[in-house]
Every structure is written in C-alpha cells, then in structure tokens.
Amino acid sequence: MKNYRQKLRSLLSAEKNLSKEGGRNSGGILRVCLVSPSGYRTGMSSLGFQKVYSLLASFPDLFCDRAFLPDPEDIRLFRSGRGEILSIESERPLSDFDVIAFSTSFEPDYLSIPLILDVASIPLFSSARTGAEPLIIGGGAAFFINPEPVADFFDIICIGEGESLIPLLFSELTRRSSETRESLLKRLGSIPGVYIPSSAIGAECDDNTGKNCLSPVRRLSADLDTTTPASTVILTEKCEFGDMFLVEVSRGCPRGCRFCTSAFIYSPFRQHRLEPLLQLAKEGISQGKKIGLVGAAVSDYAGIGELCRKIVEAGGRVSVSSLRIDRLDDEMIDALVKSGHKTISLAPEGGSQRLRDLMRKNLTEEQIISASTLLFSRGILNLKLYFIIGLPTETDDDIRELLRLVHAIREKLLQEAKTRGRIGKITISVNPFIPKPFTPFQWCGMEPLETLGKKFRILEKEIRKAPNLKLKMESLKGAYLQAVLSRGDRSLSRLIATMAAGENLKRGAEKHGIDTDRIAHGSMGLNEPLPWDKIVSADKELLGREFENALSRVQTDE
What we know:
alpha/beta, Rossmann fold, Transcription Regulator spoIIAA, 7-stranded mixed beta sheet, 4-stranded parallel beta sheet, about 15% strand
C-alpha cells in the first residue's frame, strides 16, 4: 500500500493544474470522484476526461477528485485485502465519495468498470446497493453508442455532452436532502439525456425526435459558439501526449461515412470560433507545448489553414491526428512542415473504389494518390494509411485493389525520393470492420475471424515483398471483443463481471449461456428491436434508408 501511495504522489507532483479551482473546493457539500477506467497514462490523455474534470472542478458546492485504473500489481494487492483504490488528490477511498463518475470513451474499457468497483469494495450491481454507497454515474462516448452491456452497474447514465448535462445533473444532486435513493433517481430521470437503467426511466423524446419513447434523447450543445473549447486543464509528461496542449476545434463530422459513429451520434457538425481557439493555443505555447488540434474531422474545420498559420506565427508548433484526403489546405501543410512533422496519417478506409462508394467515403483513387504526392512533394515522406477489411460485400478483388493502390502510392514515394536523396516509409494500418450502433451498417455482422485472418495473411505476404512498406493490424480477438461489447444487451453485464474477475471471454460466455458469436457475427433485421433502441430509436428510419441505399448501389453495380 505504501508503494501505491507513492505512485499517486509521484503522479500528482508531476502535474501542473491550469484551472483556478483545481477541484479542491474543500467546503463542497457533494464529494465527487471522476474515474477513468483506463490507467493514468491513457486517462489523462483523454480530452473528454479533462473537460469533464474542468466542468466539475468549477462547479459550486462540489469537491472533485480523480481516480484511475490501478496497475495490475496493485489490483492483486487490493484483492488480497491489503489496501484499496484511492483518489489521486486527497487519497480517499472511493467508497468515501458521494458520487463516482466514470468517463468512458471506448467499449473495451467496460471490463474495467466492475473491476474498479470490486477493489473499491462497492457492490457491482446497482440493485445490490443501498443508500449508504456512492451513486455510480456513467458518461462518455461509449455510452452514446450502447450502454446496455454495463447498464446494471450504474445508477445513472448520461447520454449527452458534458457542457449540456453536467450543470443540470449536479445542480439537482447538490440539493439532495433526505430523500431516498429511489426518489432521487426518479427525479433525475426527468432530465433529458439522463437514463436510469434500473427502471428504464428517461425523459420522453420530444417533437424533434419524431417518436415518444422511454429512452433519453442525446443531449447535445446546440452550438459551440458560446461554449469554451475543451482544452488541456492538467499538464503532465506522464501521459501519451505529454508534449502537447490539446484543443478541440470541432465536434462531430459532416461526412456521414456509413461505418462511423461520429457523424451520427454528434450530429450536427459544429465548430468553435477561431478567436477562442487561438487564445487557448497561445496559452499552450506559453507552457512550451506543441498544440494538438482535436476533432473527428479536423481538416473540415472552416478556418483550419488560418488557425495553423497563426499558431506557427505565434511561435508554436501544430499537431493533428489525421487529415482528410480531399481537404489538404496549403497553409495547414506549411504549418505542419514548419512544426517538424515527419509523418502524416490519411484514411482511404476502402481499398477499392467500390467499397469507398459503399461506405460513402466520397474519395476517388486519383484524389488519394494526388494527396499522397502533394505531401511527398512538401518533404513529408512518411505516411500512415488506414484501411478497413471485412466490410459488407467485400471480396478478394477488393483486397487486390487495396494492394494495387498501396503500390501506386509507393511508386510516387520512390519518385520523390530520387529527387531528395532520401526515402520514407508507408505504414498500412489495417483494422477489421466492427459494426457500430447508430450507423447504417449497424445491422451487419462482423466477418468471421478465420476469413479476416486469411485476408490479413494475403496482405502480409504481398507487402512483405516491398521495401519501405510496413503492415500493422489490430488484434482480431480485440476486435471481436469490441464487436460483442458494441452490439450486446444487458445480459452481458454478468459476463463482463466474470471477465473482470479474471475469466476469459470464451469460458465466461459458456458459464452464462451467452452466444457471443451470434452477437458479433449475426446480421440483424431492419425491423428487429436493437439493444441500443433505448437511447434514440428515432434514428432507425434514416439509418435504414442509408443501409438500403448502400446495398442497392452494390446490386446495381453488379
């Protein structure tokens, strides 16, 4: 336990908190611990986690602390009865807080939720808790998509963005008096965007959603003009982006690719005004940090070139995660080159034109090659190309088209290398298609792992022959687990609890009689009830039309 406390103190001492409040409102009447189900390094790299912390830290009458998934050796220590998980600032046991709020971005983090509750000596299931335990709240992007697999662990789930939900929810929580837990939950369930899993209570859908339902509609900020952009609040070198000051430029995506959730769960696409972004960037520059621009569609930000140019003119450096192939702004590229960028990521996604059309990527082969050539000509000789395999209707011909496209881009790299006297590298990052809720492809099943593995081996064999090409692929088992967690219903909660206790997926599923192959690989009918209908069922008509349009195009092409 002494070593664990030393770890926490070491992490805390390495932080620089830029918020005035710092979360330490010692007189707060409500004690809240914001928990990342990832370890510290990953959790503190999440701009969403930092934004929620800043909202809670500035809230009157509230004391806010943080906690993270402990290291494996510490978990073993806690399970042996020697110590318990503590918050990082005040070193309080989680059970001492009034509220534990999980900020969860990715479905695989679902497995850590019961683990954290277990080592904190808090009953895993909401039905087993009395008024004495903390309220367990869930929020974050993963819950936008499908919270049902872990719904039974939570008293409250937030289906919405923090700026619009946190003030309302915590205003109600801070005025809680002597009412029972049941009465409180019933009252909170009247807030749009608040979901009470124990009774399926949620605000009825309003006229804008088209249908009445028991589920909460997603609560989004109407626009970002009056909202302070999310940015790094706590600087630390001990996270994945330790050299960066992150700033959110936009939210959602205007593209509507049929496999991706961003355009559908965050619709409409919204962007921050240029002036507040520049002010935040200058704050990051003053801290000696590179400015990391964050958003699902950074290249689609209306003033991206001007923003990048002005950051560089202010003495800063710019970083972006990936660029839209048909939105390579000259000013932006200039800023990236001046910032020392050696590698740029592009996402063709589909290897063939047929698949790019199927997923509505709206990119031609000519555009992809031209964008790559442009970057090479500006001295950026390292590319990372993202592709998806296992898409609906994919054939071996599509895999061959992917290889042909990669080799065509490599030829452009070799031509540029001759003039520069140096050569770069192209990394092909291949990810299996995972059908996600609230996308037009939500009704499709994931391709069997056996055939995905076969396709990967074909790619590996061919790419290995060519110098300057490197192939990376996401774990197939990891993708399978993500598909199960993305598409499952509430029956998965006991399986997840079993896995958190140390059992593997296969044996855990057998123990609970759950057919995970059916969940991951099975196709669903357009009129079939879906587990995530409890979130927003009114999306189905639009998504169904998109799905039918995609398949009818394939049939027409054939």
